[in-house]
């Protein structure tokens, strides 16, 4: 270790060329250095290794036994170092074998990952995608430790420690089964509040959401009779009952079993975003994935 501290990359490069050429003059030409400079390097190397390394011979210089021992390990070490500091290679999706890990709710799965999946399989068939449960409190730690590559989350609640890219803006609509009698004709606030509602409570068990906050500000309240943790079951409930729900519009727009109408009061929407850590920000494969997801929504 002491010898390693006394070495620098220029000394090692000089030694590598000297062990190849066995000649100070030719080594100086290859290194684009003067012959005296190479001789100074050789003197320092002899001191560090405690060995003459190269001895005068009938046709140039001949390596010592110690120099012969160094030749291959030194060449391998320099090649590895060159690979390590070389510019990142362009990402080739067709040849890639990455396993990407994305944290998302079922809403993010439906609106971002599902539309992107076909193109992902076509363009990068050797890759894999793992979808993990979205845990907002753990996002920063998971991203910084590489547990996840990306998270799909609302911009409003995004941790400031992560990079963010907005994907789209979402608004709420009132949804129910096709032909629901409560969704026909003029929908007043009174009729809206009298309907039986279901809401999604991501943490489970909640009966108060952004719609209830907007109603409370208007001095109103609605009749929430069911709380579920996921959108998937909510859509099934709506299709098979007379319950209604305030849903993000993207979950309803292509549905054949649900219809949507504008609610009789303004309910704030939100912005959906991708989040990632600084450790992945410049990685070519990661950048490709981000671009692909953004282009798919």
TrEMBL record:
Residues 7-64 form the HTH lysR-type domain. This is LysR family transcriptional regulator. Pfam families: HTH_1, LysR_substrate. Keywords: DNA-binding, Transcription, Transcription regulation. The keyword Disulfide bond does not apply. The keyword Transcription regulation applies. Belongs to the LysR transcriptional regulatory family. InterPro entries: LysR-type_TF (IPR050389), LysR_HTH_N (IPR000847), LysR_subst-bd (IPR005119).
